[in-house]
Design brief:
GroES-like_sf; 2 helices; alpha+beta; two-stranded antiparallel sheet; single chain
């Protein structure tokens, strides 16, 4: 993400920069509350994503602990750590651990 501070808003320049940076992949999907979804890689060290798959865990059936909250996720984000993991330079399987939503 590039943030350019300006004294006044310049929507045309914002769109020009956004369109010329890295091509983005955006897909809107309607999903039900269950089952949960998770994002998976095809193979560790392969940047191509398999995409959203049904989660093997049924989180809706587990009771919340005293220090936990339930979040209705509205958007997720991938960070540098996720890309490094997808390249195979960091071991792990949990991608997209950042989210925004309603508590």
């Amino acid at each position: 993400m590039i943030q350019i501070s300006r004294v006044c808003e310049n929507s045309t320049m914002n769109h020009t920069i956004a369109d010329n940076i890295v091509p983005r992949y955006r897909r809107n999907v309607q999903v039900s509350a269950t089952p949960g979804l998770t994002i998976r890689m095809n193979r560790h060290g392969q940047v191509a994503m398999r995409g959203w798959v049904e989660s093997e865990e049924d989180w809706n059936k587990l009771p919340l602990q005293d220090d936990e909250v339930l979040v209705q996720v509205k958007a997720i984000g991938l960070k540098d750590r996720d890309f490094i993991m997808a390249e195979g330079n960091l071991y792990g399987h949990d991608l997209g651990t950042e989210c925004a939503g309603l508590i």
